[in-house]
TrEMBL record:
This is Deoxyribodipyrimidine photo-lyase. It comes from the Bacteria. Its EC number is 4.1.99.3. Keywords: Lyase. It is an enzyme of class 4 (lyase).
Length: 456
């Protein structure tokens, strides 16, 4: 018998329920990945993620080769390509992970319908992309949790399945053709400091960080200059690491750092269960804002300054430049940069979210859109009017200014926290820095936001 395993956002061999089920039940397995032009058409094929994906696929192929197999790569509409592979191999079952987004839902429906027509079974596996499947814990009278804390309480009590090892052997039929894997070097416009993708790099990153950063994570994860967070988000986005395995490993380690880390993994599941229940929130406000945001036309110059990291607010600019350089940004930086765009500049969160999706290697519909909405006050935040002041926040989370000096070299010789307020310098001291004046007075921006809120 032959089974097909359709990989999507789960590019790994460890703790992979669809692959495990296929290897256990069939003599031969076709590990398949389809490069679907639908993803390109939807605008999700950004250079940083394409390069990272290339690493993930190459590493998956190498891992399968070590086990006697290989990855089969096709290009085209997913359901159609899977059906072709089924027809070529006579496969009786296709295994895949349950998706979360509207796109993944439609893909699954199409696949089920078309495979049915071929007399082939589709087996969809839960708890592959998230630790707890969306919909597994719901409050009375609703299909999802809108508030994090009660969700976390229930989530933390859920029984998680065991984390599985990687299969020892994967036997792939000889006669299935595959495209050449696209190498990372072929991708243009990639951030110079982009991390290496793939399960091997993911496991190494986790082990290194577990030794170095996990114990101190509760105390230091908000420090901007420290690099104390795990930097696992791109690996989680592509599924090079299993969230179930990470929760187990963190719990086995124990301590306050591990607890805080598990809580962040729960935030990821939280946003996924909101998106699964309300797929339109990838575009529409979760809670309507009730007033027109400023658009590209209203604020073209300010938006461009924000994208370039030239707003005149050093910590915001540092964050935006980290994004440009690494295709990744510290969570505190994301909060500050997003709050500045949505609340201080009063620009539509969708404009910022789109820019993040173009740049972020971990750019993720659930996490990105819902975190943006959270910051903009249209999402699930229970304090939607909160506005982050970049000077106060800079001094708090980058007290010595090291993060700003790293990313804004124009200000590199300003000592200590003075780096957060270069406009305080006078005369010649001010002129010697080739750094813009603030593009908006904080009070002016906040007044716009508060005025709009007042109208609701
Ligand atoms: P750690 O602090 O080590 O946390 C571990 C893991 O928990 C992360 O890898 C991530 O998977 C998860 N996590 C942590 N914080 C959050 C959160 N607030 N929401 C959801 N999951 C979380 N994360 C993405 O993965 N993709 C995105 O596109 C994305 N866009 C964001 C946009 C904005 C405006 C904001 C404020 C946050 C966004 N986040 C996004 C969440 C968070 O900033 C990143 O997950 C985190 O910075 C990744 O770094 P890390 O892996 O070192 O995180």
């Amino acid at each position: 018998t032959v089974s097909v395993v359709l990989f999507t956002s789960d590019l790994r061999l460890h703790d992979h329920p669809p692959l495990r089920a296929a290897v256990k039940s069939a003599d031969e397995v076709v590990p398949l990945f389809v490069l679907d032009p639908g993803i390109q058409a939807a605008g999700f094929d950004a250079p940083n993620r394409r390069a990272f994906l290339a690493d993930c696929l190459a590493d998956l192929d190498a891992g399968l080769a070590e086990r006697g197999g290989r990855l089969v790569l096709r290009s085209g509409r997913t359901a159609e390509e899977v059906c072709k592979v089924v027809a070529e191999t006579g496969a009786s079952t296709v295994h895949t992970a349950a998706g979360v987004s509207g796109y993944a839902g439609r893909r699954e429906e199409e696949l089920r319908r078309e495979l049915d027509g071929q007399g082939c079974r589709l087996e969809v596996h839960d708890a592959v992309i998230t630790a707890v499947p969306p919909g597994a814990v719901v409050p009375a009278g609703s299909d999802h949790f809108a508030v994090f804390t009660p969700y976390f309480r229930r989530w933390a009590q859920e029984h998680l399945r065991t984390a599985y090892g990687a299969p020892r052997r994967v036997t792939v039929p000889d006669n299935v053709g595959s495209y050449r894997l696209p190498p990372r070097q072929d991708v243009e416009g990639v951030a110079p400091g982009l991390a290496e993708g793939g399960e091997t790099a993911a496991r190494k990153q986790f082990l290194t960080w577990k030794r170095r950063g996990l114990a101190g994570y509760a105390d230091h994860h908000d420090d901007l200059p420290g690099d104390d967070t795990s930097k696992l988000s791109p690996y989680l986005h592509f599924g090079a690491l299993s969230p179930v395995e990470l929760v187990h490993r963190a719990r086995d380690h124990g301590g306050a750092g591990a607890e805080a880390f598990v809580r962040q993994l729960c935030w990821r599941d939280f946003h996924h269960q909101v998106l699964a229940a309300r797929t339109a929130v990838s575009r529409d406000d979760y809670r309507p804002h009730g007033d027109a945001w400023r658009t590209e036309e209203d604020a073209a110059e300010e938006i461009e300054a924000w994208k370039q990291g030239r707003t005149g607010y050093p910590v915001v600019d540092a964050a935006m430049r980290q994004l440009r350089h690494e295709g990744w940004m510290h969570n505190r930086g994301r909060l500050l940069a997003a709050s500045f765009l949505a609340k201080t500049l009063y620009v539509d969160w969708r404009i910022g979210a789109r820019h993040f999706l173009e740049q972020l290697v971990d750019g993720d519909i659930a996490n990105n859109q819902l975190n943006w909405q959270w910051v903009a006050g249209t999402g699930t935040d229970t304090r939607p009017n909160r506005v982050l002041n970049p000077v106060v926040q800079g001094k708090r989370f980058d007290p010595d200014g090291a993060y700003v000096r790293r990313w804004v070299p124009e200000l590199a010789d300003l000592r200590g926290s003075a780096v957060h307020e270069p406009w305080r310098l006078e005369g010649l001291d001010r002129e010697q820095y080739d750094y813009p004046e603030p593009i908006v007075a904080l009070s002016e921006g906040l007044a716009r936001f508060k005025h709009a809120r007042g109208k609701e």
